[in-house]
């Protein structure tokens, strides 16, 4: 199944584009699920059909549903209380009732990741269209599975499970209790679930699409979003310019916005495949309005981008790691080498990346930003590098 992730700055028309794209795919004969993520039913308002946690048919071949973090959170915490019932009773704890539970910060993101994984693995649809939160939150969402897995591996290294038989003895010798088997089993289960989400994001059939209004503010937002995607090793397959005004307007008041729009569209077309969704003069409501937008289909361009390492040992004595960062500015970049990882900061975004195996035996020899690509030079460490090179 293909997955299309749609995001952009807040208020740019992401939900309209997600609904219109899903409708176009369904009308072309593709079994499509469109997944909404807003707390309020903005997806249902656009489709003209109320959308909730239960799947609903919005049009022939098109199913819609909405992630509801409240219900997921109550279900998870109630199940946790049931599993830990004996321990809670022993401690004299007062259990929480489902009706008094409200989601904690982060519950929405975790609920969305679960829904994304479940929908992608269900096998019921040919295409999943996800109306993601605004770009800043969406980029944090892309980072969440990998960061959580990294924290789990640091806090509960899997290799320590090899000492399971010795744990009681070690606990008595140390005088402190060691982690129980259930803790490691839970961590392993979480790791598998997070890995499944990462697999969806990294799949070659997953596509990211940006939505923005063609204006100076929209151009700034697109540059920032593209930089954040690139740092995650992702790229947008195309850019949908929303609410595009007609070029032949006679109203002098609109002359300025139309000129700004034209300039922004010309700049975007130098970098992106751009599709224009015309301004209807009203907020789109229902399938007739969505069809009038003539939005593109799902496409087939992969979202992931390779970060290759080139061998310049013969000429310059270095290996070069190429990291595409379109839109990056030199003054916004920062690099820190920490053991076998490198911390890359680009504008408001930060990512900790494990070094490729060959580069772990090298020292950083410098870095440069050229033509939207960060090139980090690594020089082999004589104490670690094979002597026959």
Topology record:
Layout: E1 2-7, H1 14-27, E2 32-36, H2 42-47, E3 56-59, E4 62-66, H3 69-83, H4 85-90, H5 107-122, E5 127-131, H6 135-155, H7 167-174, H8 181-202, E6 206-212, H9 216-231, E7 236-244, H10 255-269, E8 274-278, H11 286-292, E9 309-312, H12 313-316, E10 318-324, E11 333-338, E12 341-346, E13 349-354, E14 362-370, E15 373-380
Which terms summarize this structure?
single chain; 389 residues; alpha/beta; Rossmann fold; Immunoglobulin-like; 8-stranded mixed beta sheet; 4-stranded antiparallel beta sheet; 12 helices; 15 strands
Give a brief outline of the structure.
By secondary structure, the chain is an alpha/beta fold. The chain has helices at residues 14-27, 42-47, 69-83, 85-90, 107-122, 135-155, 167-174, 181-202, 216-231, 255-269, 286-292, 313-316, and strands at residues 2-7, 32-36, 56-59, 62-66, 127-131, 206-212, 236-244, 274-278, 309-312, 318-324, 333-338, 341-346, 349-354, 362-370, 373-380. It has two domains: 2-69 and 104-292, Rossmann fold (3-Layer(aba) Sandwich); 309-380, Immunoglobulin-like.
Outline the structure in words.
This protein has helices at 14-27, 42-47, 69-83, 85-90, 107-122, 135-155, 167-174, 181-202, 216-231, 255-269, 286-292, 313-316; strands spanning 2-7, 32-36, 56-59, 62-66, 127-131, 206-212, 236-244, 274-278, 309-312, 318-324, 333-338, 341-346, 349-354, 362-370, 373-380. By secondary structure, it is of the alpha/beta class. It has two domains: 2-69 and 104-292, P-loop containing nucleotide triphosphate hydrolases (Rossmann fold), CATH 3.40.50; 309-380, Sandwich (Immunoglobulin-like). An eight-stranded mixed sheet has the order 3-4-2-5-1-6-7-8, with helices on both faces. Strands 9-10-15-14 form a four-stranded antiparallel sheet. The model has no long low-confidence stretch (mean pLDDT 82).
């Amino acid at each position: 199944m293909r997955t299309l992730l749609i995001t952009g700055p807040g208020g740019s028309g992401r939900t309209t584009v997600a609904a219109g794209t899903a409708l176009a795919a369904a009308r072309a004969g593709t079994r499509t699920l469109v997944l909404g993520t807003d707390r309020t039913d903005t997806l249902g308002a656009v489709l003209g059909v109320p959308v909730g946690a239960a799947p609903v048919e919005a049009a022939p071949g098109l199913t819609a549903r909405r992630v509801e973090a409240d219900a997921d959170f109550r279900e998870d915490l109630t199940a946790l209380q049931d599993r830990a019932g004996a321990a809670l009773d022993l401690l004299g704890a007062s259990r929480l009732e489902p009706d008094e539970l409200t989601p904690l910060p982060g519950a929405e993101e975790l609920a969305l990741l679960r829904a994304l994984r479940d929908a992608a693995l269900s096998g019921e649809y040919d295409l999943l269209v996800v109306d993601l939160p605004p770009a800043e939150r969406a980029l944090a969402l892309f980072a969440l599975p990998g960061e959580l897995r990294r924290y789990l591996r640091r806090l509960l290294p899997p290799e320590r499970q090899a000492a399971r038989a010795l744990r009681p003895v070690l606990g008595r010798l140390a005088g402190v209790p060691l982690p129980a088997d259930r803790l490691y089993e839970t961590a392993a289960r979480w790791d598998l679930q997070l890995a499944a989400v990462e697999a969806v994001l990294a799949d070659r059939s997953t596509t990211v699409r940006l939505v923005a209004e063609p204006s100076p503010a929209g151009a700034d937002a697109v540059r920032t979003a593209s930089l954040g995607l690139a740092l995650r090793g992702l790229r947008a397959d195309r850019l949908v310019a929303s609410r595009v005004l007609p070029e032949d307007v006679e109203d002098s008041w609109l002359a300025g916005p139309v000129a700004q729009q034209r300039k922004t569209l010309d700049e975007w077309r130098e970098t992106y495949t751009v599709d224009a969704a015309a301004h209807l003069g009203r907020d789109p409501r229902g399938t007739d309005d969505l069809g009038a937008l003539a939005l593109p289909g799902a496409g087939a361009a992969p979202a992931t981008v390779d970060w290759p390492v080139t061998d310049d040992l013969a000429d310059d004595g270095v290996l070069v790691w190429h990291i595409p960062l379109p839109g990056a500015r030199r003054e916004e970049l920062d690099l820190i080498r920490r053991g076998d990882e490198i911390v890359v900061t680009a504008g408001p975004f930060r990512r900790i990346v494990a070094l490729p195996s060959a580069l772990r035996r090298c020292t950083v020899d410098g870095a440069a930003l050229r033509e939207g690509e960060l090139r980090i030079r690594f020089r082999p460490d004589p104490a670690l590098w094979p002597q026959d090179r």
